[in-house]
Each structure stands twice: as C-alpha cells, then as structure tokens.
Amino acid sequence: MDVLNRPMHSFLFPQRTTAMMLVIVLFATIAEANPVFPLSLSPTKKYLVDQNKVPFLIKEISAWGLIQALSETDELAFIDSVKNKGFNTLLVSIISFDTRFAGQPPNWQGVPPFTVQWDFSTHNPAYFEHADRFLKMARDHGMLVLLVPCYLGYKGDANQGWWDELMNAKNNPAKSLEYGQFLGKHYKDCSNIIWVAGGDNPGAAPWYNHMKNIIDGIKQSDPLHLWTGHFESAQGTNWPSENSLYASYIDVDGLYDFTESSLGSDAPQYKTELKKYGRGKMIFQLDQSYEHDIPHGSDNEDHQWMRRKNYDGLLSGCAGTSFSPGQTDNQCYTFTRWRALMNTQGMHEARYCFEAFETRAWYDLEPIPGESIITKGRGTFGSIDYVCAAMTRDGSLLMAYLPSARTVTIDMNKISGSKVNAFWYNPRTGESSWIGTVSASGSVDFKPFSSGDWLFVIDNREK
Length: 463
Hints:
about 475 residues; alpha/beta; seven-stranded antiparallel β-sheet; six-stranded parallel β-sheet
C-alpha cells in the first residue's frame, strides 16, 4: 500500500474492497499462562501484577450464585467455559441468599452455611469445605475471585441478600464479628482472592455495625488481602472510595455502574473514570453490563452501548472490565440454565475486547487529554459519541475507540519511530484490518472501512 509523502496523508476507505485492505489475525487469541498468585499492586498502583511481576488485566464475569447453585462438577465446567472465553476473574458470594438462584440457597446441595439458622457465629464446616474446594479449583485454573463475605442485597427486597437476616434476633453485631474472624483465619492463606465489601447496599445503619464487624474480623487475621467494595449503583456510592463509611478499607476502586444514568453529571461513564484515574488507587470496572437483564434499557439491551463502556473504560485508566451474559428470561448469576449463555453475542464481543488489549501493552497506556494527539474527530467531551483514547508514554502504541465511524486526524509527530503500522479492529467480529505502514510525521487522516464502532491502533509491531 502506497503512503503519500506529504505533510497531510489521507487514509480514507469509504468502501471495503479486497484491494484496499488486508484482513489479518492481528489480535489472535493468546494462550495465557496462569498467574502466579497472590496478586499485588504494581509500583505505580495503577494495575495488578502476579508474583512474577506479570501485569494482570481483570476480565471479570459476574457469577454471584456460583458457590451455592451448582455441584462441584458443574462449577468446574463453568470455570472451564468462561476461561475459554477469556475471563480470568469471578465475582461471587461465599454465602448467598437469593431466592432466584438455582440450588436453593443459602444452602449448597442441602448443606447450610450456618448450623443455627441466621446465627452467623455458627459456621458449618461442611459448607465451607465446599467453598474451600471451589476456591482451590478457581486458583488451579488461574482465576482471581472477587469474594463477597456477606452480600447485603437490596434493602427493599427480602428475597435478595442478607440485610434482613443479619438483623434477625438470632444474630447480633458480636456474632457478625465472629463470622468475620472465622473468615479471616480460614482464608488468610487463600492466594487468589480480593475481598468485596457490601453488595448492592451502601451498608449504612442499621447494617453498618454488622458489615464493619465482618470486615474488621477478617482483617484481624488477614491484613494482607486487598479490598474493594460493591455498595450501590447510585451517585456518591458508584465508587467504593466515595462511601465515607468504608473508604478507609478500600485498596482498589471498583466502579459499580449498573445503569450509566446513575452517574448523574459524571455520565457518560468515561467522565467519572478519567476523574478517578491517577488519584492514588487502581480503578477498574466492577460488575457492569448485564446482557438482557432488567430494566431492559440501553445498558442491558444495546450491545454497542456495552462495548462502548468496556473499551472506553480500558482507555480511560481502568485496569480491568466486566460482563455478565444473559437472555431475556435467563441470567447467568442465577445458574438455572447457564450453558445456553456461553455463546451469546455479548460473550463473543467481551472476548474480542479482552483479546484486543491483552495482545498490547495495556498496562502502559495513559489516557490522551483533549486534542493533543487526536487533533480532529474526537467529538464532544461528555457525549456518548466521544472518542476515548490512550497512548503509552514512550509513544510506541496508540489505541482509540470510535463509537461511530468518522475521520480522525492524528498528529504523527507524537508517535515514536520513523514508520509505524496502523490497523482497524472490529469489536463486533474480532477481525483486524491492516491500513498500512505510515510515516511518523505530519498529520494523517484515518477513516474506518465501514460504518459502526471501531478500535483504531497505531504501533510499531508488524502484526
């Protein structure tokens, strides 16, 4: 492909023809080695690394009821299936009480978590031995577990969560502390967990003393595991570090944004992510995009909306993203018919997203401000059609997500090297298209081959 040798180059491909482009396997599936647990924060505190200092990109599937709902044979089958789709992180509750879930929780296979109903001080060894085996199974398959010690749940729905059982006459804050102490002693050496406080609930009074005691009880024997929080998808508690009751416990800031509108003036989502990035805590996208789940709005029904949030987040400083597959009458987290969900449109597109970033130095990317490098075509900051973009500090890699096709102008003087390769990546199909080798000088216009959303990549790699 010829490159025009003048200050303004133009790579405009309004029609997709064989002569105009070469489709290659740029972002091929890569066989990742299992991480060496435990994970810790990188020196910059912007992402996680394993014991060999290998960066770990959180690719989380929301699997709340997994420990309670399935036999251990089916748990292993689920882990195998989602690992094959690129996921490396499971969000689960170690105890769960939700009447929608398979397996009749809070019991597992008829085994209750407590020998005295609703008395949190009477932990049942048979139940937690099962949880132990599950966590080992996950570790052996390279899976990080975001582990919720006590999912509080929606305070207005007694069929979800432990908020009302905690307040039962058989329980009290002292017993909640004892439960936390048990968990801390029991799991202090479990290498593949990050604790998650809360659960769809801000954890204020009258539950505060219970949740605080559970956390404090865990930390008495387990001071080393990292903590995040999952409090409420509402402005002021979307980020766990913004919940004043628990902010001091939070090590990694997981954004919980069930519906983007809950962010208020901080929407679209990338706005709040860019505000949080670089403020001292690692940020990541926790528990978002439930495919076809209620309330059946854009956050759950529009696949481009879901893709946008994933790509925007990873280009706005997030060190991980998340997804939960579903059909209109079948959600993954209930585990009633989970096998049918392993090949939904959303599952395939999540895998394409993971592959796009895992094949590049995602951990070195930094968000690009304003129009300093993408001089034209970004759109209006604050709109959902804005182009989020990031580049490595050394200028060797640039990635930009276009929510809709348009021409973007790149100041190639900011790109390192004399000549670099440019690519379009289709987030709907996982296919990549080589644009050509481009001189790293002057300004260059680039336009996707067709309509729709696209990921644009410039680097000095040959593939």
